[in-house]
Design brief:
Blueprint lengths: L21 E3 L17 E3 L1 H5 L6 E5 L15 E5 L9 E6 L2 E10 L2 E5 L14 E11 L5
């Protein structure tokens, strides 16, 4: 990815600093842990969990709902890892003919096709230029401020 940053991309994530950790209280089905599971199981650092390669990672913010079917909604923060080779079906940050997009990376008939999560949307087939910014590794959504 070109090291110049555009309005469509964000600055790189700074190196992970020793920060806050939260208690990991266990797994839960859509409710609260049972009293037997309430004991502390471990602690979890979001830095380490979400960004295992901070020197190769950066954030972008989704500006629309074109990937909502994949769970990426407008306003979500998306963690991108540079240098990871995309596989068919991965969500990537790609520049196609001058426009930065979050899309599924698909190989079809020997060419790269970029698709949204809505099958009704027309795919993007780069005409002259395709640059991969990286592969999406995590999504962060904040419900309350």
């Amino acid at each position: 990815m070109d090291e110049r940053r555009t309005a469509e991309t964000a600055a790189p994530i700074p190196p992970a600093l020793p920060g806050r950790v939260l208690p990991l209280a266990g797994e839960v089905r859509a409710g609260f842990p049972s009293p037997a599971e309430e004991e502390l199981r471990d602690i979890l650092s979001f830095d380490e969990y979400l960004v295992p390669f901070p020197d190769a990672s950066f954030l972008v913010q989704a500006k629309d709902d074109s990937m909502a079917g994949e769970g990426i909604r407008k306003g979500d923060l998306v963690i991108i890892e540079r240098g990871r080779a995309p596989r068919h079906g991965d969500v990537v940050l790609a520049e196609a003919d001058g426009a930065w997009l979050l899309r599924y990376f698909c190989r079809e008939k020997g060419r790269v096709v970029l698709r949204t999560a809505d099958p009704k949307d027309a795919p993007v087939v780069p005409r002259s230029e395709l640059r991969l910014g990286g592969v999406v590794t995590a999504v962060v959504r904040k419900y309350h401020k």
